[in-house]
Amino acid sequence: MRTSQPQTIYLKDYRVPAFLVDHVDLRFELFEDGARVYSLLSMRRNPDSDGSDTSLELDGDSLTTLESVSLDGSELAKDAYEDRTDRLVVHDVPDQFELGVVTWIEPQNNTRLEGLYKSSGMFCTQCEAEGFRCITYFPDRPDVMARFRTRIEADKASFPILLSNGNDVEKGELDGGRHFVTWEDPFPKPSYLFALVAGDLVEQRDSFETMSGREIDLRMYVEPRNVEKCAHAMDSLKRAMRWDEEVYGREYDLDIFMIVAVDDFNMGAMENKGLNIFNSSCVLASQETATDQAFQRIESIVAHEYFHNWSGNRVTCRDWFQLSLKEGFTVFRDSQFSADMGSPTVKRIEDATMLRTAQFAEDSGPMAHPVRPESYMEITNFYTLTIYEKGCEVVRMIHTLLGADMFRKGSDLYFERHDGQAVTTDDFVRAMEDASGRDLSQFRLWYEQAGTPELTVRDEFDQGAGIYRLTIEQVIPDTPGQTNKKPQHIPFAVGLLGAGGESLPLKLSAGETDAPTDRILELTEASHTFEFHDLAERPVPSLLRDFSAPVRVYYPWTREQLMFLMSHDPDGFNRWDAGQRLAVDVISELVGDTGNEAIDGGLTDAYRGLLSDVSLDQALVAKMLQLPSEAYLIELAEKPNVPAIHQARERVLKHLAAALRDDLLACYRRNTVEGRYEVTPESVARRSLRNTALAWLLHIDDEEGRSLAVSQFERADNMTDRMGALRALVNSGYEQARDEALGAFYERWKADPQVVEQWFAVQSGSSRTGGLPKIRELMEHPAFDWKNPNKIRSVIGVFAGQNLPAFHAEDGAGYRFLAEQVRRLDDSNPQIAARLVSPLTRWRKFAPVHGEQMKTALESIRDKSGLSRDVYEVVHKSLA
Ligand code: 0A1
Ligand code: ZN
Fold first, then answer.
1. Which residue minimizes the CA distance to atom 8 of ligand 1?
2. Which of 569, 736, 755, 852 could form a disulfide with 574 if both were Cys (CB 3.0 to 4.6 A apart)?
3. How confident is the model at residue 444 (pLDDT cuts 50, 70, 90)?
4. How far, in Å, from the CA of 266 to the mean position of ligand 1?
5. 463-490 average pLDDT score
6. Residue minimizing CA distance to atom 10 of ligand 1
7. Does residue 126 have its Cβ closer than 6 Å to ligand 1?
8. Are 747 and 735 in contact (CB under 8 A)?
């Protein structure tokens, strides 16, 4: 429990480590009531430090007992070192020495899930960012890279599988039914990449031949009941390995690559060297138990963790301020991979939706921070959408500015120059500059300035001269601790369309020949005017094509222009975006309206066109049919009134469903997927279209829709369709059909935690059923487990993040409820508690009564005694 106020850590205070570790020799004795950890560190003074430190300081956290400390083989007397709570200080160390430390820890009582802990009876670790210090005393910072040798000893019957990083070099039997395995990792690595697993697991094997002809042993370890759920992850892994060779020239370096699935995990997955550990929900899948979305998510996470082997492990971060160095770049790499494996436009739409809904919200809230933050209290609070997704967009913009070939030259140079080093985002940008000859000095502001740039676009057409002028102004709003920001370097992709929908050549001077129909305008100043010549008529602009920068664009589109772009823009992303803007406009007009305002018939026509035109890319159509989410509408609104936004969106949905009933039924019937279940863009689109049609029909309690839903629910051979039908029923007025389906679903899948999580989520996220009483009921359910982050997320997280009308209920009960759960979780799992607070942090955005209630809820968390550093930081920054 914390007694003093948490300290802020600043980037400007970075100092190189005083001592380096060349080699780490670990021995783990694992028992039911604890674990003894023997650590032998070969250390030396860092030649790059100023040499002034005579004492050695090691990090420690929650270590139950320090049993002994030795220096060069001799046990130290108690006065030769200080055992502070979070630090071990050893006085008067020589320039080179071996330090031995023995600690006793209690993984079975570790509910924080940092360091070594137990999940479903197995031992596993999570060391990023600062979990290794919960295992033993160590200079637990990423710029200390060492070679690890790890011996694990445990009872053989209970823990037949013993894993760590690298290659297994020795194994054998011990007395008392125990055994051991020793692992050696030849690559120096920071402690955050250390991993250990011990359990009764089954192994699934495969292999991969690398581009230089080496055979890599691929192994997945799961609990016996999950053997049928490994194939998709294994296939994804092989695709990712091949892709990284082809697109980035990166070959895998060890002889073995292992993946382990664990049920209790704070995040999605972890890229430990040679031994990736995954949250079960992000790796296990079968057609019966996982939706298309889950299949796609698994493919991208498996790839993400694999790609880290180069972008993160071979080249790592100097300090945690550089987190986006590995995360932004790796998310960019996984997004390119997913685009190549499926539909690039759909992938771009999904990424932009997440960014505009959630990252923009973060970037305008109290926790806003630059892609390279300047300070933090608790680093785990900085595994954010800004570091990951905005960080990815920043790398993507470099790719756009340099072009694919120069970008590849830059990444080759980066990997070659920094292999085996711990570096900074600046080193990354410099490699890109050096390889391409481009000056990215202004571009670096993307790493330094927080906040989403706002671009206001005006246009005018000079008919006489045939010139169309676009004026673009950029403003970057103030964020906590940052004002008066400088203009950033923004790649702004544009096109112009003629009245017939044709793409017009973009001539920057009169008479220019061979002008392209697509251009990247580079914005570097607060205001720019671009002139396009030789135009016979006023064009319709297509702005920020393919979402070429993570910015907000304001332009006074007319509804006619939006409908025109929806059907003519050759840029798939902007077609979709025009549809979204049109829907936002129509819904916003109805917010707060008592029901008299007519709903624009243009919207209905546009959707009818989408539903019936089979010549269109159906994957794009499936996306275009999704109305903007409530969360996005709230993000766009000034002082959002959530119930009113919910009502308005519902009204539009009902209106469209009623007006398009026959088209929806036809769409439903047309999109039956015959044959084997496959996760291809076409079949995913078909299932999505079908389930959207079903959901809309049930929204208006259509009888035919109900019977289709019931039979789909009963007969589906895959989870996408079964869940599609269940969700439609849950969000309908057919109470009996809904309850029967929910009951039958649980009975069938109650032994499968990943499916039960989906069952929780469909209920807690439904504005029709998921009121607070329902949420409390779910929390009383035998399958709910306070120790399991996935259960907490699927009930409490989904309620606060997706069931917005219930969370923002007028009486403030939703806010009080969330605060109560955060206070409860703070003691057992502060990381998860801090993440759950997030919806409350935006209290200033909401209308007075709601905002005040949210603030009061935050204060009730602030006033809890012994608040963790994680929650302290979020709550205090939000109230500041
Ligand atoms: N590096 C992992 C994500 C991760 C981060 C932190 C964790 O614990 C605090 C766990 C996992 C990734 O990017 O996949
Ligand atoms: Zn990552």
1. 128
2. 569
3. very high
4. 8
5. 98
6. 267
7. yes
8. no
The answer to whether 165 and 152 have CB atoms below 8 angstroms apart is no
Residue nearest to atom 3 of ligand 1 (CA): 270
610, containing H or E segment: helix 601-612
Which residue owns the Cα nearest ligand 1 atom 12? 270
- Nearby residues for ligand 2 (ion, Cβ within 5 Å): 327, 330
143-167 burial string, b = 16+ CB within 10 Å, else e? bbbbbbbbbbbbbeeebebbbbbbe
Report how far ligand 2's centroid is from the alpha carbon of 864 (Å): 33
The DSSP letter of residue 113 is -
What whole-number distance in Å separates Cα of residue 408 and Cα of residue 406? Answer: 5
Q: Residue 635: helix, strand or coil by DSSP?
A: helix
pLDDT score recorded for residue 3: 53
Assess whether the C-beta atom of 271 lies below 6 angstroms from ligand 1.
yes
**Predicted pLDDT of residue 1:** 46
pLDDT of residue 594: 76
| pLDDT for 596 beyond 80 | no
Maximum C-alpha span of the chain: 95
Q: How many whole angstroms separate alpha carbon 793 and alpha carbon 834?
A: 12
| DSSP letter, residue 82 | E
CA 267–ligand 1 middle distance (angstroms): 6
Share of the chain above pLDDT 70, in %: 100
pLDDT tens digits for range 477-532? 999 999 999 999 999 999 999 999 999 999 999 999 999 999 999 999 999 999 99
CA–CA gap between residue 241 and residue 224 (Å, rounded)? 26
Nearest CA to ligand 1 atom 2: 270
In ligand 1, the atom with minimum distance to the C-alpha of 326 is 13
Output b/e per residue, 332-341; b: 16+ Cβ within 10 A: bbbbbbbeeb
Q: Which amino acid is at 452?
A: T
Q: Is 127 in the pocket of ligand 1 (CB under 6 A)?
A: no
Q: How many other β-carbons are positioned within 10 Å of the β-carbon of residue 713? A: 23
d(CA 625, CA 688): 10
Query: Cα separation of 441 and 439, whole Å?
Result: 6
- Taking the CA of residue 831 as reference, the ligand 1 atom at the shortest distance is 9
Q: What average pLDDT does the chain have?
A: 97
How far is ligand 1, taken at its centre, from the CA of residue 425, in Å? 18
564-586: average pLDDT = 97
124 lines ligand 1 (CB under 6 A): no
> What is the value of pTM for the model shown?
0.98
Nearest to 629 by CA among 803, 837, 807: 803
The answer, yes or no, to whether any atom of ligand 1 lies below 6 A from the CB of 870, is no
As a whole number, mean pLDDT of residues 802-813 equals: 97
Note the pLDDT tens digit of each residue in 309-349.
999 999 999 999 999 999 999 999 999 999 999 999 999 99
Average pLDDT score over residue span 399-421: 98
- ipTM, two decimals: 0.99
What confidence score (pLDDT) does residue 741 get? 98
* Closest-approaching ligand to the CA atom of 128: 1
In this prediction, residue 598 carries a pLDDT of: 86
Q: Is 305 a catalytic residue?
A: yes
Q: Over 80: is that where the pLDDT of 595 sits?
A: no
> Which one-letter amino acid corresponds to residue 810?
E
Least confident of 249-263, 274-288, 432-446, 584-598: 584-598
Ligand lying nearest the CA atom of residue 326: 2
Q: Is 59 in the pocket of ligand 1 (CB under 6 A)?
A: no
Average pLDDT over residues 81-106: 96
Indicate if the pLDDT at residue 201 is higher than 70.
yes
Q: How far is Cα 394 from Cα 392, in angstroms, rounded to an integer?
A: 5
> CB neighbours of 796 closer than 8 A, spacing ≥ 6?
764, 775, 779, 818, 821, 836
Strand partners, 471: 458, 529
Which of 305, 327, 362, 433 is labelled catalytic? 305
Shortest-distance Cα residue to atom 4 of ligand 1: 270
Question: What's the half-sphere exposure (Cβ side, CA atoms, 13 Å) at 571?
Answer: 25
